[in-house]
Specification:
- The complex is a heterodimer of chains A (68) and B (271).
- Chain A starts with a helix and ends with a helix.
- Chain A has helices at residues 2-11, 15-33, 44-66.
- By secondary structure, chain A is an all-alpha fold.
- The termini of chain B are far apart.
- Chain B is built from nine helices and no strands.
- The mean pLDDT of chain B is 82.
- Chain B is mainly α.
- The longest helix of chain B has 38 residues, at 225-262.
- Classes of the chains: A mainly alpha (68), B mainly alpha (271).
- Chain A binds chain B through residues 10-14, 17-18, 21, 25, 28-29, 31-32, 41, 44-45, 48-49, 52-53, 55-57, 59-60, 63-64, 67-68, and chain B through 73-74, 76-78, 80-81, 83-84, 87-88, 93-94, 138-139, 142, 204, 208, 211-212, 215-220, 229, 232-233, 236, 240, 244, 247-248, 251.
Chain lengths: 68, 271
């Protein structure tokens, strides 16, 4: 458990960033592997950028609220 | 030579080496330079070994698509972590990294422990210096490996990308050591947060690009789209810094107003 925690702290150390990026990657994986979602492939780059910006904003917002 | 990789590794290394240098310096002046440098060089050798073995192994045995996707995700995670810290510091929500304060604090700890200047090798000094350089450098080693290995698949041969990144890190290390030798004090004038911010934007940009490519995203204008991505992240970061600054000002104003309203009529009369 200590090893996992050390790796988590070393790579990211922030649950919102970790979960957010995992969700973004899962969405992209779905887009590229589910036939019904093929039309979304054209905007998958945009989805990825928006997801990254969303994750950054969310974690900063959490920090700002925590500083009250 | 991969200039983007070299620059990113250089900037990332500069930040981490400045932080490690402070501890090496404090061990040097409080215990002795022999122990401090032995620990620092030992850690540098360990880091070089990690980059050489792990880096080459990753490039040779991991398929390109898997490598790009994995590296992309790791770089996004690293990039967002660095960017978050830099934005919080710019907006005043987190204190700026103060090398002078860290230097004084560590020196006080060592003196409280009864450490004095001696000529012989001191195991505690070696261990402290080794740990500081290794911990600060480990993140850089990871960036060198991931960044370098993924760049190697685009233009250079297998080891070219990692070599470029390693050269960038080595130049930063040498510059920090030279600056330290000249100044003989904590390197407080290095704009650490700006470097962190630039590296954060670079890592997030390359991470997004490579993770997208790993999935099969066809970026417009191919590699030139990296500049567009960097511009988007830069712009978004400035907006976030401004927003957070305003948020902090509002919080301060609200706290002041609450403080005023809590004052009793007697206190108001006294004022």
């Amino acid at each position: 458990m200590k090893v996992i925690k050390a790796i988590y702290n070393f790579i990211v150390g922030d649950m919102i960033i970790l979960i957010g990026v995992i969700i973004a990657m899962l969405i992209l994986a779905l887009i590229y592997n589910v036939a019904a979602l093929t039309p979304l492939r054209a905007i998958s780059g945009v989805i990825l950028v928006i997801a990254v910006l969303g994750v950054l904003s969310a974690t900063l917002l959490r920090e700002a609220r925590g500083k009250r | 030579m991969q200039w983007a990789v070299l620059t990113a590794a250089f900037l990332a290394s500069a930040v981490e080496f400045v932080e490690a240098f402070t501890i090496v310096l404090v061990v040097g002046v409080t215990i002795n330079w022999r122990s401090s440098l032995a620990g620092a060089f030992g850690a540098a050798a360990t880091l070089a070994l990690i980059v050489a073995t792990l880096g080459v192994a990753i490039v040779q045995f991991v398929p390109i698509d898997v490598l790009r996707l994995t590296v992309g995700i790791i770089l996004i995670l690293f990039g967002l972590k660095w960017l978050k810290k830099a934005i919080l510091r710019y907006s005043g929500l987190k204190a700026l990294h103060d090398e002078e304060a860290i230097f004084e604090e560590t020196r006080a700890e060592l003196r409280a422990r009864g450490e004095t200047i001696e000529r012989r090798f001191e195991p505690f000094g070696i261990a402290l210096s080794y740990k500081a350089v290794l911990l600060e450098g480990l993140e850089v080693a990871f960036i060198v490996i991931t960044f370098g290995s993924s760049a190697a698949t685009n233009v250079c041969n297998n080891t070219c990308g990692i070599s470029s990144a390693a050269i960038g890190a080595a130049i930063a290390g040498i510059l920090v050591i030279l600056a330290g030798l000249l100044v003989r004090a904590p390197l407080t004038r290095v704009p650490e947060n700006t470097l962190k911010f630039v590296v954060g934007v670079m890592l997030t940009t390359f991470g997004t690009f490579w993770a997208g490519e790993g999935f099969g995203v066809a970026w417009p204008y191919a590699d030139a789209f990296l500049l567009v991505l960097a511009a988007i992240y830069l712009l978004a970061s400035f907006v976030l810094v401004t927003t957070l600054k305003q948020h902090k000002q509002r919080q301060v104003a609200l706290a002041d107003a609450t403080q005023d309203s809590l004052e009793t009529p007697e206190q108001e009369v006294l004022h």
